[in-house]
Amino acid sequence: MVLNYIWDLLIKAEQSGLAKKDIHFVPAKVYSPYMELSNEAINTRVIEQKVEINPYYRFYDIFRDLFDVNNNEDIELRDTLFDIIIHFLADIDLIQGMNKREYYIKFVLMDIEMGIFGNSVREKIRLFNREEREVIARNILRLYETGEVVYLLRDTMRKIFKSSTIYANCEEKDELLIYIGQEENETNRAKLELIKEIFLPVRLHTEIYWKNHFGIIGVEETMRMDSIALY
Asked: Is the pTM of this model over 0.70?
């Protein structure tokens, strides 16, 4: 994907783990009149922290007098002001592209960061990437709307742990058997605990299986020697 707009770049930067404050915008000395971003390599996918842009591509009325070639005064101040204004304009771009649902998701994530869902959830949410956080926030909204807690537990698990499967054992006792399909480690345990804390009904007990699946008669994939977990 060719990045051409400042909002393109900020979305890509966030997906790469860079905060908006880590990006510094500067006016390009040499630029194409047909592009907003002035990367040396047009098709680059590398996000640099110092980004040269053509401010006249969309914002000529704002910047036409700010960088007059005959004005050599207060260059440092003008560069700082330029960076602040471009960040502000980029935020407007991002907000204009959001629908009401996306606003609600942002509010839920803000509530999590503020500790509304408890300190444990606030600490553990930092282990998830941007897409995973939005999955959790979106399903919290759906939980408020539908109350389908077990379905949303399963949906969240499948989107965070791609190979996971949940089995219900409600005939003999209120129990869920959860197969993760990944190695057990500290990060994965913390992610699982957050999902359970939000979506697991209090009445249900869980048994967790990480890399090895418990055996199911008739399902060959679960009946491999030395790879069967005991139930």
From this structure: no
